[in-house]
Amino acid sequence: MIESTGRGAVVVVGAGVIGLSVAWRLAASGARVRVVDPRPCAGASWVAGGMLAPITEAWPGEESLLDLGVAAVARWPAFAARLREVAVDPRLRTEGTLVAAFDAADHEQLEMLADHLAARGRAVDRLTGRELRSLEPSLSRSVRSGLSVPGDLSVDSRKLLHALRDAAGRCGVDFVEATATAARGGAVDLDDGSVLDGDAVVLCAGAWSRDLHDALKPLVRPVKGEILLLRARRGVITPQRTVRASVESRPVYLVPRDGGEVVLGATQYEAGFDTEVTVAGVRDLLADAQRLVPGLGEFALVECGAGLRAGSRDNLPLIGWLEPGLLVATGHHRNGVLLAPITADAVLALLSGRSVPQPVAAADLDRFEGKGVSP
Question: Which site in 109, 188, 318, 322 is 20 to 30 Å from 369, CA atoms measured?
Answer without folding.
Answer: 188
